[in-house]
């Protein structure tokens, strides 16, 4: 596992190197952060954070190509990157339970609707795909919601790690199940809490 992870990290670092531009007018800024779970790559434009992934995620080269299709990437900081680094550090230190980073997620309208629901899920709570489907008024859409969850490329901040199986077991996570378990334990997750999620999804009355 460690060898495969290291190989994925090296491959992804090479992919980022190929994707980068030296153009000062590049649309996207990129920076890598050190975290307790390994390095994470952040990419942001002026509108917000568009990618935050663990550096060894196997889907990262494809995600980098998708970002690059919208504009060149340059390894440099910007205000959103700096805010992301600061808030991530506070999260991993246990001093932050809610992110205020401006986001610029790229996806289909359905995917964005799923991610918007995830953003309402409180720190320490978990839900199932069926719970999300119910709040969207699409009770038969659990599989499609699972695919949308997997398409999220702003890890931790859009908390796809808080989605578990209906029986309480962990399900797939792009960063790996060990990271998912660590994140849930770090947040003090209390098992599936759909009522808490549904209340948050409805918003203030």
Structural topology:
Layout: H1 2-19, E1 28-33, E2 40-45, E3 48-54, H2 60-68, E4 73-75, H3 79-92, H4 109-119, H5 129-135, H6 142-151, H7 177-186, H8 194-202
Parallel strand pairs: 1-4
Antiparallel strand pairs: 1-2, 2-3
The residue-averaged pLDDT reads 85
Strand content: 5-15%
* Percent of residues in helices: 40-55%
Shape: globular
Radius of gyration: 17 Å
Which H/E pattern describes the elements?
Answer: HEEEHEHHHHHH
The major β-sheet equals: 4 strands, mixed
Structural class, from secondary structure content? alpha+beta
Number of strands: 4
How are the strands of the largest sheet arranged?
Answer: 3-2-1-4
- So how many helices? 8
Distance between the termini: 48 Å
Low-confidence stretches: 194-201
Key features of this structure:
alpha+beta, 4-stranded mixed sheet, 4 strands, 205 residues, globular, 11% strand
Description of the structure:
The protein is an alpha+beta fold. It is 43% helix and 11% strand. The chain has 8 helices and 4 strands, in the order αβββαβαααααα. The chain has a 4-stranded mixed sheet, sandwiched between helices. The longest helix is centred in the N-terminal third of the chain and has 18 residues, at 2-19. Residues 194-201 have low confidence and may be disordered.
């Amino acid at each position: 596992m460690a060898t495969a992870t290291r190989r994925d990290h090296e491959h992804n670092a090479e992919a980022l190197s190929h994707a980068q531009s030296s153009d000062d007018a590049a649309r996207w800024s990129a920076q890598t952060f050190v975290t307790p779970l390994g390095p994470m790559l952040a990419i942001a434009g002026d509108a917000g954070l568009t990618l935050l992934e663990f550096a060894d995620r196997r889907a990262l080269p494809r995600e980098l190509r998708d970002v690059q299709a919208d504009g060149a990437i340059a390894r440099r900081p910007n205000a959103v990157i700096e805010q992301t680094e600061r808030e991530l550090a506070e999260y991993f230190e246990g001093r932050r339970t809610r992110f205020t980073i401006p986001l610029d997620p790229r996806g289909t309208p359905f995917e964005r609707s799923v991610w918007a629901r995830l953003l309402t899920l409180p720190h320490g709570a978990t839900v199932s795909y069926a719970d999300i489907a119910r709040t969207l008024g699409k009770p038969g859409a659990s599989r499609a919601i699972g695919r949308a969850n997997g398409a999220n490329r702003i890890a931790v901040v859009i908390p796809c790690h808080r989605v578990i199986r209906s029986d309480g077991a962990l399900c797939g996570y792009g960063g790996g199940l060990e990271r998912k378990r660590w994140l849930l334990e770090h947040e003090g997750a209390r098992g599936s809490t759909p009522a808490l999620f549904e209340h948050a999804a409805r918003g203030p009355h």
